[in-house]
Amino acid sequence: MPATHHRTVMVRGLEVFYRESGPPDAPVLLLLHGYPTSSHMFRHLIPALADTYRVIAPDHIGFGRSSATTVDEFEYTFDALADVTRAFLSELGVAEYTVYVQDYGAPIAWRLALADPAAVEGAISQNGNAYEDGFVPEFWEPIWAYGADPSEQNEQNLRPDSGTPVLAVWGRNDEIFDAAGAKAFLRDAPAARVELIDAGHFLLESHLDDVARLIRDWRGGF
Fold first, then answer.
1. Which domain of life, per UniProt (predicted)?
2. CB crowding 137-166: b at 16 or more within 10 Å, else e
3. Which of 111, 93, 90, 95 minimizes the C-alpha distance to 32?
4. Domain ranges of the chain
5. Are 9 and 169 in contact (CB under 8 A)?
6. Mean pLDDT of 57-65
7. DSSP 8-state symbol, 75
């Protein structure tokens, strides 16, 4: 089994911790974790795919082992987190990649795709919404009331590029983002592959082999 390396790199004066495995010249699979977790959630997926891919999984700023500065020193917005991730990839010499997102990692990835569509060779979404469909109201209404800005521009900024291959692999029993969030990708990416698994928000903990198999099968199609 390929070794997983734990590394750090300085990006914009911030320390970014990341896990990396696989051949340095292999296609890059970028894993962006959700909330409230870190790259630790990918600890089993990384070695499962590292024979084929250069797998890179950073901790977002404020998460895991990366820098966790005060709000006076860093603006904790998805725009800022995407900017750090973009600089992180540049520092590692990564120009093209397939991105795997979960939860909090999704709005970061969509911003990366909007900023440089040609860099994103494919997108895999594991319970990471790009639409309002699938947001369970009981969980989200307090958050929307506190901080949402439902402008048309903000909504458009989250829509994926229709020309990008998309795999939505979803825990159908998620109590935060239900299956409608996976099916919504078909609106703008009719060729998207939607796989609903009998699991919850952290399906890698229970269905790692299924997810790894789906990625290999999906990626082999283009």
1. Bacteria
2. eeeeeeeeeeeeeeeeeeeeebbbeeebbb
3. 111
4. 5-219
5. no
6. 97
7. -
Cα 128 from Cα 34, distance rounded (Å): 8
Residue 74 pLDDT > 70: yes
Confidence label for 198 from pLDDT (cuts 50, 70 and 90)? very high
Centroid of chain to Cα 13: 23
**Measured CA angle at 22 (ends 20, 28), to 5 deg:** 75
Please state the rounded mean pLDDT for residues 151-180: 76
Decide if domain 5-219 falls under CATH 3.60.15.10. no
Rounded Cα gap, residues 134 and 194, in angstroms: 14
Q: How far is the C-alpha of 75 from the C-alpha of 218, rounded, in Å?
A: 36
Place of tokens 């895991």: 64
Cα–Cα distance, 124 to 85 (Å, whole number): 17
3-state helix, strand, coil in the chain (%, to 5): 35, 20, 45
